[in-house]
Write a structure and sequence with these properties.
This protein is mostly helical. It has helices at residues 2-23, 25-44, 52-55, 59-88, 95-123, 127-147, 156-175, 185-194, 196-224, 226-264, 266-302, 310-327, 333-336, 341-363, 367-398.
């Protein structure tokens, strides 16, 4: 799992730099907005039920849910697309923007399908295949974005990303073809009732978090310009490379292991979680020091310093990404412990601090102030949730 994630992230990081130099800030700004909308829709269209594929113990129930989720995703996405299409008639002069939104809905369908397949393979512990597909996804994505540059200098990043995710989705379907069967609606109803906290707490929490995070591209673009958001997006993408390396290598493996240890050996779960947290922080800190010293120097040389404020944004956001790396890889412990209401509370907090930070920054006409405030309060939030989770695991271990 780690090897595949490492290869994928190295290829992705190097490709990101080449594409940034090639496309420029404006194209990256458009791509960032597309990714933000896609992220929101991909949460909405599955209702986060794919997580139940790992924690559901009955084989027949899991297989039925696996097949049902594809239909649920399609229906919910079509409803969203219909509303977007209707609204677009009232904004005839904004057709280009609505076209990007519709493309993001299409992307979210393929992305959600892939996520469903990945969770299913996670339960089957087929981590080798998951790793291989991560590498393929990055390779297809970069190759198509490079090929499409000559024809689509502003939207080539969007089109390349969309085509690659659809190709990967087709590949996933061929792998899991033996698991397809008809849907048992009564069994699905039973599964939904047994996992109602996912829909009641996790879905609203994740949606609130997604709105809080993904509204920033729109607000930054609106008040500070597309180029500024393009630089912000590249900075976040650079920092996210080591974060996703850690998260993709740990999160799903930990989720499966934590679910097993909770019932069999809760004291070992506490020690395992602590070790993972410490190693994640140490590894992320090493990457961040490297990025903000030698890394940023070579980045500015490579990009010819055309990406103004890249160094500043990267430094500020480094503290937030460090706090995230301490908790996010083990965040599924909240679901395992059935403390899903904490997701809702925490993400409401994120929603508030993001809007507060941006509002203050807008008053002073400084995106740096916005990023500093969002980073400071974000760090407090992530670390508080980490300590809460460890405390709850210890309680279970002491019983």
């Amino acid at each position: 799992m780690f090897k595949g994630a490492l290869i994928a992230q190295i290829i992705g990081f190097l490709g990101t730099l080449v594409l940034a130099k090639l496309y420029g800030e404006s194209a990256y700004g458009i791509f960032g907005v597309f990714i933000s909308f896609s992220g929101f829709f991909s949460i909405l269209n599955t209702f986060q039920l794919e997580q139940c594929l790992v924690i559901t113990n009955h084989k027949g129930e899991r297989k039925n849910l696996f097949n049902s989720l594809f239909l649920i995703t399609l229906i919910s996405s079509l409803i969203v697309a219909f509303f977007v299409f209707v609204i677009s008639f009232f904004f005839q002069n904004q057709t280009d923007k609505f076209f990007i939104i519709l493309l993001s809905i299409l992307f979210s369908i393929a992305s959600s399908f892939n996520k469903i397949h990945e969770y299913y393979l996670t339960f089957k512990e087929n981590f080798k295949k998951i790793s291989e597909i991560k590498v393929l996804t990055i390779a297809f994505n970069l190759a198509l974005q490079l090929i499409l540059f000559q024809q689509f200098k502003l939207k080539g990043l969007v089109y390349g990303n969309l085509i690659s995710i659809i190709l990967i989705s087709i590949y996933y379907f061929t792998i899991n073809k033996p698991s397809f069967s008809s849907i048992n609606s009564s069994l699905l109803k039973k599964t939904l009732i047994n996992n109602k906290t996912i829909v009641v707490h996790v879905l609203p929490a994740t949606l609130i978090s997604s709105v809080a995070i993904n509204i920033l591209p729109i607000l930054i673009t609106l008040y500070f310009g597309l180029e500024v958001y393009g630089v912000y997006f590249l900075s976040w993408k650079i920092l996210s490379t080591p974060f996703f390396l850690i998260n993709s290598s740990v999160a799903q493996v930990y989720y499966k292991k934590a679910n097993n240890l909770l019932t069999k050996n809760s004291s070992e779960l506490f020690e395992t979680t602590k070790k993972i947290v410490y190693s994640n922080i140490g590894l992320m800190l090493f990457f961040l020091i490297l990025i903000n010293t030698i890394g940023i120097y070579f980045l500015e040389l490579f990009l010819n310093k055309s990406w103004e404020n890249l160094k500043t944004y990267t430094l500020i956001l480094s503290f937030l990404i460090l706090a995230k790396s301490a908790f996010i890889p083990i965040s599924d412990i909240i679901i395992v412990l059935k403390k899903n209401h904490m997701h809702l509370i925490f993400n409401c907090y994120l929603f508030i601090i993001n809007f507060f930070g941006f509002y203050i920054g807008h008053l002073y006409n400084s995106i740096n102030i916005s990023l500093i405030l969002i980073t400071f309060f974000g760090c407090i939030g992530y670390l508080s949730l980490l300590f809460y989770s460890l405390k709850e695991i210890k309680k279970v271990a002491c019983k």
